[in-house]
């Protein structure tokens, strides 16, 4: 569904936030449009392959962000509580409880 033809309709310099199904996105088409400069980048909550291997190039790509595949299971209250906790941990110089660890696949 989310292929080159559709993604090219996005405004030049835009970015994609992918929170649907991994198989909905033609990742090769998206990456080509990013590499060509049509799109500025993308954020993934879901990918075709999960967990993404630790050595997958997406982890190191400067125009990609990967978040844990938990978007549909979080209530606004839970997200707000995690955000407050993260801000407090950052402020206090503590380790982040919700830090993403690519070594574990997320």
From TrEMBL:
Residues 1-71 form the D-isomer specific 2-hydroxyacid dehydrogenase NAD-binding domain. InterPro entries: D-isomer_DH_NAD-bd (IPR006140), NAD(P)-bd_dom_sf (IPR036291). It comes from the Bacteria. One of its GO terms (molecular function) is NAD binding. The keyword Endoplasmic reticulum does not apply. Pfam families: 2-Hacid_dh_C (PF02826). Keywords: NAD, Oxidoreductase. The keyword NAD applies. This is D-isomer specific 2-hydroxyacid dehydrogenase family protein. It comes from Salipiger profundus.
